[in-house]
Amino acid sequence: MSETRSQKLPNLTVQQLEYLVAAVDHPTRAAAAATLRVTPSALTQGLAELERRVGLPLFERHGRHIELRQQAQEVLTHARRVVAETRDFARWAVAQRTGSSGLVRLGTIDAVAVQHRAEAIRAFHRDRPEIDLHLTVAPSGNLLESLLSGELDLIVCVEPETTPEGVLFAHCFDEPLHVYAPEGEFRRSPRNWGPWVTFPAGSHTRAVVATALTNAGAPFEVVAESNQPEVLREMVRLGLGWTVLPPIAGAAVSGGMATARVEPVAHRHLVVGRREGSPPDPAVDALATALVGPETDPRPASGSSRGR
């Protein structure tokens, strides 16, 4: 009879894994050590001990810089997950000891925080004064990164093309996207639309826009980029190009810009995101429920539309 021997697990500590994440996320060891409130020598010793326990070299030197080896990416992925889940657990333990959920860290894109779910966020903050609500407004990609790293508990973002591992999404609402042109530059055929001022490469909304315009037969030549809808609006009014925006942003100007047609060219899906496996937190659950909430009816497209 053969006997299967169990694989001995490396004796890794959360602190060592936290050292690894900090070393990768900061430009220098000194900056990483300062963030962790340890000395650079303590950080270096901790990383050396982590390498010894893993049994693989994790870093290599390139000139004056020390970089993570390609083969160590799996170790980094494991470290990020463990550090994020440990932070979740620490917050849960504090909440259990104090009888209060304490801190909720919410991240949203600007349209959600300022318009679509502003009242829900205000009501949560007003009705739960014992909860310390921290709000971060950023593009969708940044919000997802902060959620995965454990810096945020809950996000509302544009749904990405693929769901990252370790994230659970709940549908929030769909928002129409309309084509806007400089006033006086109406062109009926999508083949003649553009050039475009739009969100930066990597933006979730830009991916939706690019696919929709391609499907409509419109060339997608980008001449300028910005994360800010109000900046894109002004670029259009200056005649620099066309853009695609939700109506709540496009209708905020009184002139200099017109919709190319009444119907939206696409819809972007807004979702509430949480880390999979996060410890139960009644306050986070309550805020997530409030954010999913009833459908928001976006304001109609600008009345200056000149096409169909």
CATH topology of the largest domain: D-Maltodextrin-Binding Protein, domain 2
Q: Report the mean per-residue pLDDT as an integer.
A: 87
Helix content: 40-55%
The low-pLDDT segments are: 295-308
Q: Quickly name the level 1 CATH class of the largest domain.
A: Alpha Beta
- Strand elements, count: 11
**Largest sheet features:** 7 strands, mixed
- Evaluate the radius of gyration: 24 Å
Order of helices and strands: HHHEEHEHHEHEEEHEHEHEEH
CATH superfamily of the largest domain: Periplasmic binding protein-like II
| 3D shape | globular
* CA-CA gap between termini: 78 Å
Q: How many helices does DSSP assign?
A: 11
CATH architecture tag of the largest domain: 3-Layer(aba) Sandwich
Verbal overview:
The chain is of the alpha/beta class. The protein folds into three domains: 14-80, Winged helix-like DNA-binding domain superfamily/Winged helix DNA-binding domain (Arc Repressor Mutant, subunit A, Orthogonal Bundle); 84-172 and 270-292, D-Maltodextrin-Binding Protein, domain 2, CATH 3.40.190.10; 173-268, D-Maltodextrin-Binding Protein, domain 2. Helices cover 41% and strands 21% of the residues. It has eleven helices and eleven strands. Helix 2 crosses helix 3. It is globular.
Summarize the structure.
The chain is 41% helix and 21% strand.
Helices, strands, pairings?
Elements: H1 14-25, H2 29-36, H3 40-54, E1 59-62, E2 65-68, H4 73-98, E3 103-108, H5 110-116, H6 118-127, E4 132-137, H7 140-149, E5 154-158, E6 167-182, E7 196-198, H8 204-216, E8 222-225, H9 229-237, E9 243-245, H10 247-250, E10 257-259, E11 266-275, H11 282-292
Parallel strand pairs: 3-4, 3-5, 7-8
Antiparallel strand pairs: 1-2, 5-11, 6-9, 6-10, 6-11
Helix pairs in contact: 1-2, 1-3, 1-4, 2-3
